[in-house]
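FIELD: query
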Amino acid sequence: MKVLLLGSTGNVGSRILSALLAHSHTPVLYVRNASKLPQQVLTSLPSSSIVTGDASDRNAIAKAIQEHDCEAVISAAGLAGMFSRTEQFPKIFRAVVEAAATVGKSRGRPIRCWMLGGFGMLDIPGNHKENFELIQTIPENEVAWSILCAFQMTPAKEADATARTKTASDKIIATADVPPNWNARFTWVPLFGTLLNVFANIMGYATTLEQAAESVVRDLDKGMDSEFINKRVGIIAAK
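FIELD: result
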């Protein structure tokens, strides 16, 4: 599958690029500055697969999808933390979603689209809700979306996009719309029960960047048969 990837120079995106190659997908990198790509990426990918543009420019993103005949888009650009985010993040989110919808409408079939959302977008108290509200307005016949709602992600090893090494799939548990294995032990506490549950559970949702990338690309392998289409996806490291 040909996949337009935004944010390939970042911590998450560089691991997604590695996972895409490991799963035999064909990545097209959409970057603001190609010189920030590692040398091994520049030498291993054809120059035609690198597109320079602004991640908040929906017209440029749509053009990249069209001209490279991409079937899917993964956006790993911007910061989608639980309690903080970059000011640019909602702009990037909107631009990617609207660009994918434009192309999906013109093709008459939906674009498969994976977005970063932040753990707080799941059905627990948090932020980033405006992005979820936006993507719900997109017709299903234009964009088949999923949103990765991971918590803290740390590197297990140095990024190497050319390593083509798969992460073991049995190390990840993913669920739609709610955090996997959530323990609602404090629901009985008046007023503050939900908040206490967040603090009691939250640190258990730390995963590696490699696990997060694998969960996205492994699902992309399923194409339109994915159970996570039009869902927010929470992940946790399996015990």
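FIELD: remark
The mean pLDDT is 87.
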